[in-house]
Design goal:
The protein is mainly alpha-helical and 223 residues long. It contains eight helices and two strands.
Length: 223
Amino acid sequence: MVAAIALLALQPRTGPDLEVLSLVMLAPAIGAAVAWPLIRGREPWATRPVSSPVLARSIVLALAVVAAYFVVISVACGSAPTVPAQVGGVPVVLFVLLQALGALTEEIGFRGVLLHGLQSWLPRPLAAVVTGVLFGLWHVQYYALPPLQLAAFMVGTTALTLTMAYVMTGSFWQRMASCTLIHLGANLALAFVGDDAVPMTTFAAAIVVGGLVAALLAYVRRP
């Protein structure tokens, strides 16, 4: 929380445009680093890596989830995705890279350390739900939304975490690769589809459909 407050204060002085990267997205990774001495012996980065083919299947599954996000939001908005030359005054390539950085640092804190820690005491689905709710509450900028839109956002963050919990696999960084891809995909779908802000009800629907796609593909691939 201290890191988040400091980064919020730093943003208008030195940070990029909020549309490009909100510096507060870096806070969960800072918090994870601070918490490291408290979880020694249960470090999430001590999990075993998986083989390249297994990781590739996880990445492909994550890409399918992202594709579902784009499809649902495009259909709901009646607009195909468009990639502008610039976003927030920076080249779109830099925008995507900064969004990826922000997604990674949030994933390190929430799906990397917090979810892993909760799974020591809770079943994976319940740990994912708790993490998803906390991740939603972390986004204080959405508290001003109408109740229905705020509730939809919370449903979306919970479904997002449940999806990640079952798509990710392997070592800490292997899991972060899949989670960051899904997180980045959700952000880019919101940024690149439609000219107006996407309603949180549409966001939630897209995230839920993405989770269903992941579950269906995982079921089909079962031996």
